[in-house]
């Protein structure tokens, strides 16, 4: 180590694993990134994306100044001019057309940034619009809805207690590639290997023999989109064979008999025809989950991005309840986060539940869920004239042009907006449509606390990392940018002073719950500003907090900050009934709207399966649409390949390494084929987030190997009617060879 080297620690903000990193700096430059061995939560684990943070920091294409579009071209500008332009255009637009004329779209990285997660809602509130969209309806909204209905809050999502389980069944998740989702679990591989070493079993059910399946004791192919039939048959079997055991939860559960009746038609034989999983395997799984315990069934994105997403998400938890594995060590348990968790506020045990159907979208009449409308509705809300038409859009850390179905239509719609503002770090497929782009900062210049993921973690913990490097002179933090935008939307003017806005917002918020103690509470957190102040408030008011001095020894931000590897808050503990916020005070096993929706599934029981369907895929060196510009990740084999089973390849005349055309209706894309027996016959897999060949993007490296955009093929109008989640899996496509002389000659 030279004299100028320093070591700093930073929680990785790239995926849900939230690994602690150890970063070496020499003369202000990052020289090495590795896992932080004494991180209390991730214990030194790191994946290649964590290492790529250096490339992200140094990426010449990463935006460092605001951009403004002048005569169709982006030019660098000052924050002052950028905000002035937005004010000039937004204020009269809202005055003339009303608050719903503005929409927001919030993308995935916002969930990983304290400033974005805490301050984007401030912007949305200031706009006062009902047109709120996010990546949630491309992802986990079904799970949020089913959890809300069953447990009373959108974020009361039970997660596998992997360190104590004996049997883990994974349905539609590939944590070996994704590093876990709706389940914060760094080093899944190590934990799965420990499970096997102590005699436990891992079972994977997936249309592809994934990296996770390769690690498993057992893998079963399942026909995409058919999870509901498997799950209903599991529940059916638990009842039919007298295996349902509620145990401790018996007095905390409602709806058992309604549930029994509702799943009666879903026999394993009927499910077998639909899922392609034999009936005896389905029965065996039900028995194993009921008797090999502690056991846990975990469903993830494959179970959400389909037309029965909410039903599937629901029945995953139902199986865990009926097998005695919900809220039990080694089963599916509720984390107890140190900050920001609604299910830790108040005495609990009962609550108002989740509000449903408060309003519907203007054009398609789709229900709002958790305050959001389906992303598939955004284009039509922009295109369709009339009162409430969307004329201005704010995107925050989102790339819906690539990440949502039929980006071509959305792109045309974006070009018709009167105003589009993006808060983003790249000029990419989405932000190229903006009038103004406001940059984010490098993760090294940003402090970090995970607001969302401790609510989903395999173990309770509190970890904070300060910024490693100072923000460059004159560069605003993203929370400051969002506050400015909020002030403009509220008519306070682009000149409004950020610190004063923040003080006023915090005083207002604290006033709402602290009453006569407001002054004392504000004084207690006065050493912090911005996100840190909100964090200190949340930690101290939270379940492990110091109660602003009333519980000495309790958590404060200062205490968390002083512990370099974070604070371990222990293994997950049973939380029922305290975690519940349902009006009945019980776990609702048979919510009315879910039972009613089963009829839709029942109607499909005898439908024929399409000949060929498409599903997605994740790769450990990629992250949705936006990390293809980083050299350390982009190198190596081309990853945007269509995996095709050998039988399908033969049938459709496509060859390994050759080009093929995938099409649906009037849409087609050209892809590179990789023939692979890891696919279920009749299923093609292509990763999403590719297609970096749009004109005007500033993604030098990504554009060299743009790949094909899977979402071009998908239908923006196909969604789960309950949650509004897009259908991204199991859509019927056709496959045909594209003759390419150069490639044929090489073979
Ligand atoms: N077919 C198919 N489509 C899918 C999926 C699938 O499985 N199949 N998965 C879906 C899922 S799960 C998700 S979550 C969505 C994601 O959908 P989106 O969130 O819309 O897309 P991302 O690709 O994550 O784009 C992230 C954007 O944030 C920007 N960004 C990155 N870091 C920062 C930062 O620090 N600050 C700011 N301001 N901006 C930043 C990037 O430049 C990029 O523009 O994609 C979905 N699309
Ligand atoms: N490296 C990397 N990590 C990521 C991301 C990334 O893009 N790259 N994205 C992040 C995001 S935003 C999210 S939401 C998470 C997602 O995390 P995961 O849910 O683990 O995501 P995937 O790896 O796409 O795994 C989904 C699996 O479902 C299978 N599948 C597809 N359709 C069906 C179906 O109908 N039924 C069943 N049972 N299975 C099906 C697919 O074959 C795939 O193996 O990953 C996060 N982590
Ligand atoms: S697993 Fe996720 S959090 Fe951990 S280093 Fe990789 S990208 Fe970062
Ligand atoms: Mo996601």
Automatic annotation (TrEMBL):
Gene Ontology biological-process entries: cellular respiration
Keywords: 4Fe-4S, Iron, Iron-sulfur, Metal-binding, Oxidoreductase
GO cellular component: membrane; oxidoreductase complex
GO molecular function, one term: 4 iron, 4 sulfur cluster binding
Keyword Iron: yes
Transmembrane segments: none
Domain 4Fe-4S Mo/W bis-MGD-type as annotated: residue spans: 5-61
UniProt xrefs under InterPro entries: MoPterin_dinucl-bd_dom, Mopterin_OxRdtase, Mopterin_OxRdtase_4Fe-4S_dom, Prok_molybdopt-oxidoreductase
Highest rank taxon of the organism: Bacteria
PANTHER family per UniProt: NADPH-FE(3+) OXIDOREDUCTASE SUBUNIT ALPHA, RESPIRATORY NITRATE REDUCTASE
Full protein name: Anaerobic selenocysteine-containing dehydrogenase
Record organism: Nitrospirillum iridis
Phylogenetic placement of the source organism: Bacteria, Pseudomonadati, Pseudomonadota, Alphaproteobacteria, Rhodospirillales
């Amino acid at each position: 180590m030279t004299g100028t080297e320093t070591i700093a620690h930073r929680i990785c903000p790239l995926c849900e694993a939230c690994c602690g990193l150890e970063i070496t700096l020499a003369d202000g430059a990052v020289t090495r990134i590795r896992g932080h061995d004494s991180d209390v939560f991730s214990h030194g684990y790191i994946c290649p994306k964590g290492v790529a943070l250096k490339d992200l920091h140094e990426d010449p294409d990463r935006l460092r100044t605001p951009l403004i579009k002048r005569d169709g071209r982006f030019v660098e500008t000052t924050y002052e001019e950028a905000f002035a332009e937005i004010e000039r255009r937004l204020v009269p637009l809202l005055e003339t057309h009303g608050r719903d004329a503005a929409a927001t779209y919030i993308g995935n990285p916002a969930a990983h940034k304290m400033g974005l997660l805490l301050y984007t809602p401030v912007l949305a509130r200031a706009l006062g619009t009902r047109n709120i969209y996010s990546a949630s309806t491309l992802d986990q909204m079904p799970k949020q809805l089913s959890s809300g209905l069953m447990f009373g809050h959108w974020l009361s999502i039970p997660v596998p207690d992997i360190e104590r389980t004996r049997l883990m069944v994974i349905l539609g998740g590939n944590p070996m590639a994704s590093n876990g989702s709706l389940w914060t679990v760094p080093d899944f591989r190590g934990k799965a290997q420990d499970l096997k070493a102590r005699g436990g079993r891992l079972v994977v059910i997936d249309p592809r023999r994934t990296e996770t399946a390769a690690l498993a004791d057992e893998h079963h192919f399942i026909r995409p989109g058919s999870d509901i039939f498997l799950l209903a048959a599991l529940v059916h079997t638990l009842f039919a064979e007298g295996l349902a055991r509620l145990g401790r939860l018996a007095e905390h559960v409602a709806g058992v008999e309604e549930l029994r009746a509702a799943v009666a038609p879903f026999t394993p034989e009927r499910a077998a025809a639909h899922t392609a999983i034999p009936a005896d395997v389905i029965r065996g799984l039900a028995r194993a989950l009921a008797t090999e315990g502690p056991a846990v069934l975990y469903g993830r994105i494959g179970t959400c991005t389909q037309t029965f997403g909410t039903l599937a998400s629901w029945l995953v938890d139902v199986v865990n309840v009926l097998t005695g594995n919900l809220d039990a060590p080694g089963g599916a348990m509720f984390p107890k986060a140190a900050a920001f968790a609604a299910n830790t506020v108040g005495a609990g045990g009962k609550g108002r539940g989740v509000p449903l159907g408060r309003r519907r979208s203007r054009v398609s009449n789709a229900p709002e869920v958790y305050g959001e409308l389906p992303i598939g509705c955004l284009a039509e809300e922009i295109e369709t004239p009339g009162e409430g038409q969307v004329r201005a859009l704010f995107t925050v850390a989102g790339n819906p042009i690539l990440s949502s179905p039929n980006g071509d239509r959305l792109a045309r719609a974006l070009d018709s907006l009167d105003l589009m503002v993006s808060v983003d770090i790249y000029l990419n497929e989405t932000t190229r449509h903006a009038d103004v782009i406001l940059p984010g900062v490098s993760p090294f210049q940003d402090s970090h606390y995970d607001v969302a993921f401790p609510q989903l973690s395999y173990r309770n913990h509190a970890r904070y990392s300060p910024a490693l490097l100072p923000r460059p002179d004159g560069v605003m933090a993203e929370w400051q940018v969002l506050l400015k935008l909020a002030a403009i939307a509220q008519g306070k003017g682009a000149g409004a002073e950020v610190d004063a806005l923040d003080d006023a917002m915090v005083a207002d918020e604290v006033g709402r719950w602290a009453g006569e103690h407001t002054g004392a509470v504000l004084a207690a957190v006065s050493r912090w500003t911005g996100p840190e102040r909100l964090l200190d408030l949340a930690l101290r008011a939270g379940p492990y907090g110091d109660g602003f001095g009333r519980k000495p020894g309790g958590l404060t931000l200062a205490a968390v900050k002083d512990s370099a590897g974070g604070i371990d808050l222990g293994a997950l503990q049973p939380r029922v009934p305290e975690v519940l916020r349902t009006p009945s005070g019980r776990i609702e096993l048979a919510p009315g709207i879910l039972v009613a929706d089963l009829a839709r599934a029942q109607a499909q029981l005898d439908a024929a399966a399409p000949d060929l369907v498409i599903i997605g895929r994740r790769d450990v060196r990629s992250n949705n649409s936006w990390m293809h510009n980083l050299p350390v990740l982009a190198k190596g084999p081309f990853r945007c390949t269509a995996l095709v089973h050998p039988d399908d390849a033969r049938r459709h005349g496509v060859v390994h390494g050759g080009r093929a055309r995938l099409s649906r209706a009037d849409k087609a894309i050209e892809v590179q084929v990789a023939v692979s027996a890891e696919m279920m016959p009749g299923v093609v897999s292509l990763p999403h987030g590719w297609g970096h060949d749009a004109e005007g993007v500033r993604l030098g490296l990504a554009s060299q190997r743009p790949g094909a955009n899977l979402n071009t093929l998908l239908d923006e109008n196909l969604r789960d009617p309950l949650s509004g989640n897009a259908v991204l899996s199991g859509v019927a496509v056709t496959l045909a060879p594209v003759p390419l002389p150069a490639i044929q000659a090489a073979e």
